[in-house]
Amino acid sequence: MAFTPLHDRVLVRRIESDEKTQGGLIIPDSAKEKPAEGEVVSCGAGARKDNGELIAMDVKAGDKVLFGKWSGTEVKIDGEDLLIMKESDILGIM
User: Fold this and answer.
1) Are 38 and 65 a contacting pair, CB within 8 Å?
2) Strands 37-43 and 9-14
3) Tens digits of per-residue pLDDT, 38-79?
4) Which of 10, 32, 40, 53 has a Cα-to-Cα distance from 78 of 20 to 30 A?
5) Burial class of 40 by CB neighbour count within 10 A (0 to 12, 13 to 18, 19+)
6) What is the DSSP letter of 20?
7) Pairing state of beta strands 54-55 and 64-67?
8) With left for phi above 0 and alpha for psi between -120 and 50, is residue 18 left, alpha or beta?
9) Alpha helices in 9-58 (DSSP H)
């Protein structure tokens, strides 16, 4: 199934963090935080100004992004856990 977000929304796949610390300690699943970085899967066309003019998106599919810890809404599409968020929730492109 193909899914395209509307307007200024972005579909993001979380990128899992390392299982070990730099010192070599293994982090158990219960102590891990949800990663705040991901890869853009797809984007909407962009937001619109009051006069109807389209504001282009700054991100595109394939970009690696950093987003806020509690950003987005978790959804399951084709059995995969993804996030839908507004472009403004994205802090930057890596």
Assistant:
1) yes
2) antiparallel
3) 999 999 888 888 898 998 888 998 999 998 888 888 999 888
4) 32
5) buried
6) B
7) unpaired
8) beta
9) none
pTM assigned to the model: 0.76
Closest listed residue to residue 2, CA positions, set 90, 91, 77: 77
In which residue are the tokens 């806020």 written?
68
> What is the C-alpha separation between 74 and 30, in angstroms, rounded?
19
Backbone dihedral region of 79: left (phi > 0), alpha (psi from -120 to 50 degrees) or beta?
left
Site of tokens 């730099």: 22
**What is d(CA 85, CA 44) in angstroms, rounded to the nearest whole number?**
11
In whole angstroms, give the CA distance from residue 6 to residue 54: 13
Spatial distance between the Cα atoms of 33 and 16, rounded to a whole number of angstroms: 10
Residue 25 to residues 21, 34, 91, Cα–Cα distance (Å): 5, 18, 29
